[in-house]
Amino acid sequence: MGVAKGRTEVEVGADGVAVITIINPPVNSLSVDVLFSLKDSYEQALNRDDVKAIVITGAGGKFSGGFDITAFGGIQGGQRDQPKAGYVSIDIITDTLEGARKPSVAAIDGLALGGGLEVAMACHGRISTSTAQLGLPELQLGIIPGFGGTQRLPRLVGLTKSLEMILMSKPIKGEEAHAFGLVDAIVSPEELVRTARCWALDIVEFRRPWIRSLYRTDKLEPLGEAREILKFARAQTQKRAPNLQHPLVCLDVIEEGIVSGPRAGLWKEAKAFQTLLFSDTCKSLVHVFFAQRATSKVPGVTDLGLVPRKITKVAILGGGLMGSGIATALILSNYPVILKEVNEKFLKSGIDRVKANLQSRVNKGKMSQEKCERTLSLLTGVLDYQLFKDVDMVIEAVIENVSLKQQIFADLEKFCSPHCILATNTSTIDLNLIGEKTMSQDRIVGAHFFSPAHIMPLLEIVRTRKTSPQVIADLLDVGKKIRKTPIVVGNCTGFAVNRMFFPYTQSALFLVDRGVDVYKIDRACTKFGMPMGPFRLADLVGFGVAVATGMQYLENFPERVYKSMLMSIMLEDKRSGEATRKGFYKYEKRKASPDPEIKKYIEKSRSMAGITPDLELMKLADKDIVEMVFLPVVNEACRVLDEGIAVKASDLDIASIMGMGFPPYRGGIMFWADSLGANYIHSRLDAWSNLYGELFKPCTYLAERASKGLSLSAQVNQAKARM
């Protein structure tokens, strides 16, 4: 059997309205088949004498999720026989739909995103349900709206609102869309198609105006004002995303339509869309889109036909920063949570932290006070294990102390039911060690959240050789329900994210010891697209944690750890980062500024190590600093893959973006590395390791890939999976 193609169907009622339904599950995306079928259905309706008007809707309660993104890979890979955006935008959407001699109304439920909304905007009326989502999120994929969205949205909602929706990829609900004039009426899902039919007939009978969105001007600001708005938007965009071109191209296209007329705008949009489709940014962001959806495909787990068990109640041990953050994430997704602490004082602090997390959502307008109270009622604080007998999962989030964790897991085995999942949020301790004193090693698993746990989107699920596939399947399901992107990794020091990125700070410390300015390194990394450089990050994490984790790596990978005394020296002088308001930076009201005082600590660190500044390194350009900091990260990521700690390279791309803030428009750490090429990376690391030692020594995996001319991400059967 071939793959079912997307299509549209036409049904003509006795009232003379042809209802065209888009059918392409799950979200009725606009594949090439759907677009051509839509054109055919339209022409059929236009040619029939018994059809007075047209209604477009989507099957299964969804209008359309937009242009079929699965076609992108083919187009970018060189299958250029796909229809050009200009043909779709002008021939199908503008001339056939909007220019038709019979009026049409879009009946919108569920989703009208991207191309879906662009089709709806070309209709002569729009009826929506209150909960439908309408938006143009194309910029998230490195492109711009390509089916007329840059021209029609400003004409329907005004320039200011359209820029917010397009530049921020921010969808709005039906109610708000109605308030801004994007839709003409709000009705219940049951009344939707009937109302749209009546509306379309009203246009035929001249009871309602027949409006072509493309030629409306009443919502557009006067030219001078429009230019000011666009100028301000350009400045904001450059400030927010200095490395990205496509948002600026989008603004140019919108301006063209306002200055030279909508038809000129459509042609400029079509050309820009076609060019951007082949840009590196678009390729990277499309890769990230698919990679994110692929993290939940895990060989040996998700291919076994396992059904996730229902997790109805969760217990958390420890109400500190991590425990309270995890509790917040769970109750926000309607999981009842039991929070256990060792005494009343700690328990009150833990519950107060959760309250503060929720209150901050209320203050930002993301939650009503009533919903906040309701959510908080899902949390129960306890001081003993009495209520643990009927929980389905426990997450331990106490301090990093092996014997304490061993004792806790021995207790949990006694107090919890035999099916209860026993998870730990440790970020450094070997899971086999934690479960050593239990008989339940098949249900012990790592659930490693990133701080703050209720905000950061990544969840590392860590399995040992003994963890059962069922437990992993259960945790993948919980991860999805609490809106995290889960990646399944093997058990080793630092797991995937922290292990990959431990050289990030190491290389930076190496450069500082040799005379490179701390702030120059941080600036080079933020210019590259990181949210913060290695030294600002060390301040945020705190030197205590940084030194302790450094010791873990020194113990496990002694040959490639750079032994810098700098942070220890600063710690001795009560400088431990942002918490003490002094680290590599000084802090006033959370604002970081360079601190000239750090020079004396750097000089002391240098003299203790017997190192003199290296004039060659001190002259390094930003590009070389970035490579010296990130290529050792790539090298470590290769080891993580080679040892089978990660299932696939694209999982490490997502881990680097969501766990460390690696710029998504570069596609993730491995995708970016492949854009440089294994050979180039190997030769640079090899040259540095000859000059500066083991910190830069290329691993076998990298050397093999370089010699065979293979990409670093190419899948090879991993015989030695550490899972």
Automatic annotation (TrEMBL):
It is found in: Peroxisome. Residues 313-491 form the 3-hydroxyacyl-CoA dehydrogenase NAD binding domain. The keyword Lyase applies. Gene3D superfamilies: 1.10.1040.50, 2-enoyl-CoA Hydratase, Chain A, domain 1, NAD(P)-binding Rossmann-like Domain. SUPFAM superfamilies: 6-phosphogluconate dehydrogenase C-terminal domain-like, ClpP/crotonase, NAD(P)-binding Rossmann-fold domains. It comes from the Eukaryota. It holds the Pfam family 3HCDH. Residues 494-587 form the 3-hydroxyacyl-CoA dehydrogenase C-terminal domain. One of its GO terms (biological process) is fatty acid beta-oxidation. GO terms for molecular function: (3S)-3-hydroxyacyl-CoA dehydrogenase (NAD+) activity; 3-hydroxybutyryl-CoA epimerase activity; delta(3)-delta(2)-enoyl-CoA isomerase activity; enoyl-CoA hydratase activity; NAD+ binding. GO terms for cellular component: peroxisome. The keyword Isomerase applies. Pathway: Lipid metabolism; fatty acid beta-oxidation. It catalyses: a (3Z)-enoyl-CoA = a 4-saturated (2E)-enoyl-CoA; (3S)-3-hydroxybutanoyl-CoA = (3R)-3-hydroxybutanoyl-CoA; a 4-saturated-(3S)-3-hydroxyacyl-CoA = a (3E)-enoyl-CoA + H2O; a (3E)-enoyl-CoA = a 4-saturated (2E)-enoyl-CoA. Keywords: Fatty acid metabolism, Isomerase, Lipid metabolism, Lyase, Multifunctional enzyme, NAD, Oxidoreductase, Peroxisome. In the N-terminal section; belongs to the enoyl-CoA hydratase/isomerase family. This is Peroxisomal fatty acid beta-oxidation multifunctional protein MFP2-like. It comes from Phoenix dactylifera. The lineage of its organism: Eukaryota, Viridiplantae, Streptophyta, Embryophyta, Tracheophyta.
